[in-house]
Amino acid sequence: MSKIAVSSALRELRFHLSQTGEASKPLRTFLVKNYPALKTSTNYKLPILIREAFGVPPSVTARFEKGREVKNNLDGLKESEIEAAVKSLIKGFWASHQCMFIIVYDIL
Questions:
Q1: How far apart, in whole angstroms, are the C-alpha atoms of residue 60 and residue 51?
Q2: Is residue 3 part of a domain?
Q3: What interhelical angle do 79-107 and 25-41 show, nearest 10?
Q4: How do residues 11-44 score in pLDDT, each as one tens digit?
Q5: Does 2 map to a domain?
Q6: I need a surface site. Which of 14, 39, 67, 70 has the fewest CB within 10 A?
Q7: According to its record, what are the GO cellular component terms (predicted)?
Q8: The total number of structural domains that make up the chain
Q9: Are 78 and 26 in contact (CB under 8 A)?
Q10: Is residue 87, in this structure, part of any structural domain at all?
């Protein structure tokens, strides 16, 4: 995984997956390959939680400041699509907040 810019508004990344489920296999592979890069890109300050439970569909949840959570279902995605989903989750939220800031700033 290439280095990604992580928003300072991001407080936590949480991955849910099944230990044995076939649907979670691409997410398990993604995490084995990319967990170190995710941690180093945040200087080890961002909690990245991996929650395993039997029969749980794979998903990623990002928690932002003020308790806002955004969840993406990763069921049926390939490893490359999972990487794109994680990146868009992080960048998409930040971009929308930047736009909100610009709009508020222009009004003032």
A1: 10
A2: no
A3: 50
A4: 899 999 999 999 999 999 999 999 998 888 877 8
A5: no
A6: 67
A7: mitochondrial inner membrane
A8: 1
A9: yes
A10: yes
